[in-house]
Amino acid sequence: MKQLIELTAGRPIFGGKCLSEYDGIKVMLERALPGEKVSAYVKKKKSGFMEAVAKEIIEKSPHRIESDCRYYPVCGGCKLRDVDYGHQAYIKEEVIKDCVRRIGKISDCEILPIIKCPVADNYRNKTEFTFSKMRFHTEHDRGTDEEGFNLGFHAPKFYSKVIDIDHCNLQSDLMNRIYYSLKMRLKNTGLEPYDVVRHEGFLRYLVIRKSNADEVMINLITKSKKLNETRSAADGLIKEFPQVRSFINTINPGLATTAFGEETVLVAGERTITDTIGELKFELSHDTFFQTNPSQTEKLYGVALEFAGLTGTESVLDLYCGVGTISLYIAAGAARVTGFELVENAVANARRNAELNGVNNCVFRAGDMMKLAKDGEIFREHYDVLITDPPRDGMHHKVVEAIISSGIKKIVYVSCNPSTFARDVDLLNQGGYTLVKVQPVDMFPQTFHVETVGLLVKRGQE
Ligand SMILES: C[S@@+](CC[C@H](N)C(=O)[O-])C[C@H]1O[C@@H](n2cnc3c(N)ncnc32)[C@H](O)[C@@H]1O
């Protein structure tokens, strides 16, 4: 029998938790807002520390609101849909402060007020959905008999089941209409969803991506190739939605549960779509990264550019450069920019994007950053400023070591994970870099995710 305790939620910390106290013991409390009095069950107990999950709210925070989504909170995509937006922003700001102080061990740097997102919904330009034979029943669809064809999001903790959904508030209305139409078309073909347990079936994932100008790319990930059926669904969809400019079929016959595969077939349209950031155009392939909230991307890059403090003479290194977005955004302010990136298609897109935008002072190279760091490839040349924007795991310690050894004067660290950001900042601090300031940017309303830009300067070079 799980122990139940009554306590008040303290300040927000990373991972959607609040740091609280019970009987003089520190408690990491889940599913509560700061200030809420809750009864919670104890998940883990160690000496001087507990983990607990709120079961019932005894005194509600004034920031709780009604959720406007029937899949919330079961779907798991949104974690803060029943919290007013101002408070969501406050929580994220506090989480960043906590990570910088506790994980980064830095107490004297300036943390600027978060840049809020002007829209709290319909902001995502890319969404990934999963097919499954197994439905996870939500409160609303209990009793329905649609087991067999389900498309939606993975049920948290049930890897073989999905929560069948008809729309997602985080993506645009156009994406929702295209999603539903394609879902129905695929269902009517009789094609079977993939069964993760038996490794049987056909339909695995669906990724929808939309540009600012409403060019849409569909990537349907299947276990094998059935081109007649896929083509018929694609043709029907394009007739209804001419905005669909690219329909790709990625074949993933393997056991890995990912939306990537061995082969990609162009079913209809072009292999790429074109998106924009400000005046710049970007060609995007199906497997390349692009910031998911276009209304905030320019602000994020604007902060990176401001922190870089370029005068036009600098040689800039852009690590984890994707399709060259940051490189091209800052190119006019620098003498030259070199970008490094893992995904070959992204590097090809980046080179093409430089051409598309008439930029001729950027070069892009493909490679795994850890290997490039180990082989001494990243700092073959001299650079004045480094901009780094790694994935959620942060930078490999070999990459951090290479940066420290290079002695580069200024680092602008763009991060989508405050905890790995703070971990890397701690290493860089030990290596002689001072974290001068941090700018939180909210790119992901309704979720705990937040973007952070940090400026680090080599001590003695300020
Ligand atoms: C957060 S994205 C940033 C991309 C780009 N700066 C932007 O704003 O669009 C991280 C990028 O790192 C790349 N990446 C992930 N692991 C990598 C690795 N081991 N080596 C090099 N690049 C990697 C991903 O493909 C992705 O393009």
Percent of residues in helices: 10-25%
CATH superfamily membership of the largest domain, which one?
Vaccinia Virus protein VP39
Secondary structure category = alpha/beta
* N- and C-termini, Cα separation: 58 Å
Question: What ions, cofactors and ligands are bound?
Answer: S-adenosylmethionine
CATH topology annotation of the largest domain: Rossmann fold
Radius of gyration: 23 Å
Which regions contain 5 or more consecutive residues with pLDDT less than 50? none
- CATH architect. name of the largest domain: 3-Layer(aba) Sandwich
Arithmetic mean pLDDT: 95
- The rough form would be described as globular
Q: What topology does this entry show?
A:
Elements: E1 4-8, E2 11-13, E3 17-22, E4 25-30, E5 37-46, E6 49-59, H1 85-103, E7 110-111, E8 126-132, E9 134-135, E10 150-155, E11 158-164, H2 173-189, E12 203-210, E13 216-222, H3 227-240, E14 244-251, E15 263-269, E16 273-277, E17 280-284, H4 294-308, E18 315-319, H5 325-330, E19 336-341, H6 344-356, E20 362-366, H7 369-374, E21 385-388, H8 397-406, E22 410-415, H9 418-430, E23 433-441, E24 451-458
Parallel strand pairs: 4-6, 7-23, 9-11, 13-14, 18-19, 18-21, 19-20, 21-22
Antiparallel strand pairs: 1-5, 2-3, 3-4, 5-6, 8-10, 8-12, 10-11, 12-13, 14-15, 16-17, 22-24, 23-24
Bound molecules: S-adenosylmethionine.
